[in-house]
Amino acid sequence: MAGMPHSLKRAVSTPLLYFFILGDVLGAGVYVLIGSVAQASGGAVWLPLAVALGMATLTAASYAELATKYPRAGGSAHYATRALGPAAGSLVGFCMLAAGVVSVGALARAFAGDYLQALVSAPTAVVIVVFLAALAALNIRGIKESLRANVAASLVELSGLVLIIGLGAWILLRGDADPGRLTEIGTAEHGPVAAVLAGTVLAFYSFVGFETSVNLAEEVRDPRRSYPIALFGALLTAGVVYVLVGVVASAAVPTDELARSSGPLLEVVRRAGGVPDRLFSVIALVAVANGALLTGIMASRLAYGMARDGLLPAVLTRLLPGRRTPWVAVVVTSGASLALALTGEVAVLAETLVLLLLVVFAAVNCSVLLERRHPVDTDHFRVPTLVPWLALASCLYLFTRIDAEIWERGLILVGLGAVLALVNGLRTRRAHPESRITQAVKTMRP
């Protein structure tokens, strides 16, 4: 239609992008992660966290190269389409969408759960509906407004973790901690190496979230300069905070007690004294809401980008006049998350999130290597060739650490994505044999 906007507004600065990535990586998981890592690896909780940071950074480097080389909404799906063809792009995009929609639904249900009930009693269904409607409205209003809200929420999340570090340091200084636990590696079930690797798999989950930021590349003012700075800066910040939290939590709380607790950081607060337990309920709610907002932004931008590439219905490309936000994509993805949250299917699907994202990460690491055959005229971030290979190897290793039960569930979703890819491929060939995407793939082949 004449006069309708056809591109997203470039309104995201480097600081806003940095806080987007930081808020998405920190997320709500860290408040329960430390206990699980301690149970898997022993007292040296900080070590698996440090190893996981290194593994996440490898794949993040591949994203940095592709996001600065091709700064477009659609992110991982767009990269896979260029390097591997529309079918692969459709599969990768479906995995990302499924992970994002399920994540928002799970976070909505978490928001209505025990943390909120500790502060106020409210029907779960009502809370979920209001929560997701508010997030969708903020997302539709504009990316700048959404990311400004994220800055405030990220600062609350970060301040809560800094508080834990400070309280843990106070426990150490007054002599009520045991620094010797920081060198205890291994459990009754696993030796030192196996224990660290088991803990690393769990810790790796806490760094997931950085991949969502590539879907904002088209809305970043100067993506080729801003994106690597924001990405690596946010990952480093999160990594340092995680390692320090791991150090103080392990030293302050006995390992078996830390492993048994469903709120391990709350154990640090209780041992330090002076801080109300209810404070962490508020912080956790902010973390959950922020994670849902950022993931919702990712899902809507990904749906918009895939639709623009012809992989999803074209109606998802409609933008709100004036604000130029993908309002149809926001409504559709929010509606899917609402359905999952209200029906309770999120608990089953949430266990497959990591598997879905590993499919995406493996495809992205392959894509960055294949796209080296097609240089572009503009300057962009370039990672040493060894890094994507190491990142791919780390993904393959993590695949081997996933339980068979999760594979059974995850393969169902991956199968659905494969069917979508097949349908898209057939539809493209029959209706548009020389479509823009097909032609682009042909021209990229050597």
UniProtKB/TrEMBL annotation:
This is Low-affinity putrescine importer PlaP. InterPro entries: AA/rel_permease1, APC_superfamily. Keywords: Cell membrane, Membrane, Transmembrane, Transmembrane helix. The lineage of its organism: Bacteria, Bacillati, Actinomycetota, Actinomycetes, Mycobacteriales. One of its GO terms (cellular component) is plasma membrane. The chain crosses the membrane at residues 12-34, 46-66, 87-112, 118-140, 152-173, 193-217, 229-253, 279-304, 325-342, 348-369, 381-400, 406-426. It is a multi-pass membrane protein. The gene is plaP. One of its GO terms (molecular function) is transmembrane transporter activity. It is found in: Cell membrane. It comes from Nocardia cerradoensis.
